[in-house]
Amino acid sequence: QSALTQPASMSGSPGQSITISCTGTRSDVGAYNYVSWYLQYPGKAPKLMIYEVSNRPSGVSNRFSGSKSGNTASLTISGLQAEDEADYYCSSYTSSSTLVFGGGTRLTVL
Amino acid sequence: QVQLHQWGAGLLKPSETLSLTCAVSGGSFSAYYWTWIRQPPGKGLEWIGEINHIGGTNYNPSLKSRVTISIDTSKNQLSLNLTSVTAADTAVYYCVRPFKKYSSTSLDYWGQGTLVTVSS
Fold this sequence. Notes:
The complex is a heterodimer of chains A (110) and B (120).
Chain A: E1 9-12, E2 18-23, E3 35-40, E4 47-50, E5 64-69, E6 72-77, E7 86-93, E8 99-101, E9 105-109
Parallel strand pairs in A: 1-9
Antiparallel strand pairs in A: 2-6, 3-4, 3-7, 5-6, 7-8, 7-9
Chain B: E1 3-8, E2 11-12, E3 18-25, E4 34-39, E5 46-51, E6 57-59, E7 67-72, E8 77-82, E9 91-98, E10 107-110, E11 114-118
Parallel strand pairs in B: 2-11
Antiparallel strand pairs in B: 1-3, 3-8, 4-5, 4-9, 5-6, 7-8, 9-10, 9-11
C-alpha cells in the first residue's frame, strides 16, 4: 500500500488560515469517509484532531476543520496560533481493510 | 481515564524477535480493534496491524509474514511480535486504542511509545 501524499512542509503567520492536503486514490481516500487527521509534537504521541473526514473529537478546537473532494482530503486550520506548529498526518481506511498514513506535513508558524 | 502502558526490549540485534506488550487500564477492553503503529526516527507513521477482542487479526501486507499481534483479555493486554528484525525495523512503536468501538479507522488513545533500535 502506498502512502497518502501530503506536502512536506507548510508555513503561515499567526491569525492566517492554512489548508493541508492529503491525496490518495479511489481505493482509500476516494472510496471511504474514513479519513482522520493527527497532530504530533516532537517526541510526543500523535493526537487525533479529525475523524471521518470532518468530525472533531471532544476538546479539539473548532479552528480545525476537515473536508474531502474526490481522492483528496484537506485539513484547514484557521486563526493560526503558535501552538499549532507541529507535524500533521492524515490517514485513510483502504479497500484492503488496512490503514494507510500520509507522509506528514511540518507546519511552521512564522 | 484510558491509559496504555507499553514495555519491551529497546535494543535488538539483526535477526532477533521484537516483543512488546501493552497494558490497558481505565476503560473497556472488549469491542475495540487494538492497533500497533510504528514511526522510524524522523519519518512518518506506519500501520502495523490490529486485533479485535476475540482475537481476529489484520496486518500490514508488507509485514504480514513477520508480525503477530495477540491479546490476553484476562489481563487487558495486547502484544506485538516481529521476527527477523533488521535496521529498517528501528522505530518508535505505539499501541493504540481507536476512537470508536468496532472500528479502527481513527486512533485516539496512544501508549507512550517504545523506541526499538536494531543494531549489531
